[in-house]
Sequence to fold (535 residues):
Amino acid sequence: MAREQLGVLNALDVAKTQLYHFTAIVIAGMGFFTDAYDLFCISLVSKLLGRIYYTDLTHPKPGTLPPNVAAAVNGVALCGTLAGQLFFGWLGDKMGRKKVYGMTLILMVLCSVASGLSFSDHPKSVISTLCFFRFWLGFGIGGDYPLSATIMSEYANKKTRGAFIAAVFAMQGFGILTGGIVALIVSSAFDHAFKAPAYSVNRGASLAPQADFVWRIILMVGALPALLTYYWRMKMPETARYTALVAKNAKQAATDMSKVLQVQLEAEDEKLEKITEEKSNRFGLFTKQFAARHGLHLLGTTSTWFLLDIAFYSQNLFQKDIFSAIGWIPKAESMNAIHEVYRIARAQTLIAMCSTVPGYWFTVAFIDYMGRFAIQLMGFFFMTVFMFALAIPYHHWKANHIGFVVIYSFTFFFANFGPNATTFVVPAEIFPARLRSTCHGISAAAGKAGAIVGAFGFLYAAQDKNPTKTDAGYPPGIGVKNSLIMLGVINFFGMVFTFLVPESKGKSLEELTGENEEEEEAPEQQAASARTVPV
Fold:
């Protein structure tokens, strides 16, 4: 049976949309903006790193990162993110959202700056220090996932909570877009200031010595947005749900939210004590009660995020082929090193503007009308259909590049107007306050495990079956067509596992998690309490 909710939490649930909601979106969202910038900007400069540190002037083509180095440079931040999601997710439930939030931000700022610094100019030293700092950058970024989602869900009202959490996640699109724009500005300025011939014209002169500054500046700019929001993050009070339900301080929760909501709220110590003393509000993560109540939910959130990210992060496999095929990126030897960065950044910026950013904001607009379940199911369905549409007539698309690009763009539009946003939103709503950040961290870490499979497993799998046609240093794989079929099957299973995830639209967090429910007394206890004489 449901009991009356704490006044302070009810006030948050029914509050009209006001300035503090938008402040919270910007503060939490800027963390995500930084995350996306830092994670995705490495793909803009990895070709340049290959040119600077691995070019052999006797070879007709400019240098590229060897497969093991490319995997390390691109993947080390994902590994750090996975570890950070688990660690900071757990810490957010132990120490509080606000305290841990500050730690992740400091780590992100320091490691963004350090990523652009390297000891000596020897390739091994540069790559080693870059990988070291990008791992810890990823570790900080990992903490931002559970904390941003949890803070926003605990501050939001129940009517528009989905849109607010999705808006925080949608800042990722602007982060990717900004990464492309910064790379365009920096590479364009250096290309005009230090003119160099194409590699095919003059191999040695095609790499201006100043090119080494380009990748460093692009990586280090990632520290700025995080630094700008640090002050506001530290001024933000701890969420009332953590203060009341986890720290068990009704007075502090009422004081904090009175300032935020600008209404007078009373501390309800007795009611809070009753709620927190219930057995149903004391079980931990590794208990039978959790498994019975939330086990399938956690399986649903982890499996869907894992399957989605395999497909989402595999997109990099096809980008270089698409860009080259439609003439957005000419052959490497026909450009100098800095101009190549410009062309890659321009292509990625166009993709972000046309496909990535709109998808996120469609989710923000419709999530509280359609519901999380419908959007996630629809997204996985269309991703499955479009992956098969790319895979089955794959040889037809080789001659029809524009059609391939259109369907490819739709695939990732429905990833963002679909499971890429909802897998982030739902784990922040359906688990109890004392385990919310931890469970979101576990779900997000499953997603990053999928990202590692998508980015690297399929990098090897998508290689041509013919050993003479593989990329330099890679063994033969199953080919792009078979890889696309596999991704279609993975998306189909994402659709199946979506049925394990409950709909959370329009309900209060405590209603979803059962934290407001009174325990029914067992018949023996009722009989015992009815006796007047002790036995």
